[in-house]
Each structure stands twice: as C-alpha cells, then as structure tokens.
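Students often ask what a 'structure token' actually looks like in practice. Rather than answer in the abstract, let us consider Phosphate transport system permease protein PstA, a protein of 279 residues. Its sequence is given first.
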Amino acid sequence: MSPDKKKLRSKVSENKKARIVLRTLTYVISVLIVLVFLLAFVPGFKYWSWEFFSQFPKNQMTDGGIFPAILGSVLLTAVSLVVAVPLGVLLGIVLSEYNLTYIKFAVTVLSGVPSIVYGLFGLGLFCITMNMRTSILAGALTLSLMVLPVISSSVYEVMQSIPRELREAAYALGARKSEVIFDMLVPSVRNSILTVSFVSAGRVIGETAPLILTAAVFYSPQLPRNLLSPVMTLPTHVYYLAAAYGSKARWMAEGTSSVLILFVILVYTIAFMFRREKK
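Now compare that with the structural description of the same chain:
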C-alpha cells in the first residue's frame, strides 16, 4: 500500500473515532439535560390543581396557589418584549447594513454583562432617579436592556447570513437602501427574527436577580392595578420560598418550579417551530 493511501486511511479512521466521541458526548449531555428537567418538573407536577393556578398564597405560603406570580411573570415578559424586540431588531439591522464597528463592539460587550449588574443599573436609573419605585415598568425596562444586546446580535448574524449578491442585484435594479432592507431582507429572515424573540422571552421569564431589585415583592395581597405597581413573579417566588419558609412551603416551591419550567418549555418549543419552518 502506498504512503498516500495509508495516510488517507488513517485520516478516515480518525474522523470516524471523532464522530463516535462527539455523538456519545451529545447523547450523554442530552440525557443529563432531560434528567435535570425531570427532577425539577416531576416533583411539583403532583401539586397542580385549579386552586393552585387560580388562588393567592395563604397561611404564610403553606396553602393556596400562585396566580399572582403567574400573572406577574406574564406581564413582565410581555412588556419587556414589546420594548426590546423592535429596538433590538432595528439595532441589529443598522449594525448589519452600516459599518458601525464601535457600536457592534459595545453591543457584544453588553451581551456578556451579568444580569445582577443590569438589576443594579435598573434600580438606580428607573426605580430611584426616574421615581418608578419597585414596579412592573421598572422591571420590564431593566429586562429590556438586558435582552436588547442579545436580540440585536442575533439579528445582526441573521442579516449577515443573507448572500451579498441579493443586495447587489437589488441595487443594480435601482432599489433604494430602505427598500432593500425592509422589502427584501427583513421579510426573508422574518422567521429567524421570531425565533430570536421567543428565545429572548424564554430568558426573560426565568430571570430572578434583576427583578428582586426592580419589580418583585415578597407577597402582594392584590393584583397589580397599573404598570407602576409591584408584582410577584414565578422565579422570585421560588427564591423567596426557598430562602424564608423552608420545608413548610417546599411543596409550593416545587409546584412553582414545575410551572416555570412548563412556561420555558412552551416558549422554546414555539421558537423551535419557527426555526424548523425557516429551514
């Protein structure tokens, strides 16, 4: 056998081994992720009932339900996405179609900032300086700032994946830049933008640290009346129950965790559906 054939056979063998190792690691990691989800989801599932979803907590969190926390999480997620998605998409388009290197660098740096830092920033700017106090609006604006770099960076990458020849062909036909962007490029990546939006929703609904500082309260005897009212949320409710109530309220913490996981699974499932439709 010639040296070239030996070298080629050795290379093919190495590639097969690498594929086997990577595939095994993928299966192991997938099984571990599923186990983590099951261990967090199954223990709380047995506490689900109509009362659990529709009532306020009672008797120092040892009875009742989590309706205010569910409503608070839904409100915060909706308001923060209403603010963050349009701004993030617009920023991603601008970064893609205009050469703004320094802003792109700043957005990349901001996407790596820990969420507690955003919480401290939101506490200082929205709650204290702008006098929003602990409220839905202050929490939603803080979460919007937190996911804005993530959305804009993702939209930037999606826009960059569009072949350059499409832009050049449109310009050659006399189209203006705004027509190329909004009539041709953005519609072609619509599903990718929706996927990014739902992935951001999954991150927002599970955040805890920024909300402890800007929006969430330990317990609220009434539902929020407007955007300047404080709220209970699912992740902060789990945190408070674990930190302050111990074993007496453990069942409620487990039930709340399972509901939170259900929300996250639903949101990411919708994002995955848009991603598959894109393909």
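One point worth highlighting: The chain has a mean pLDDT of 89. Ask yourself how you might have guessed this from the sequence alone, and why that guess would often be unreliable.
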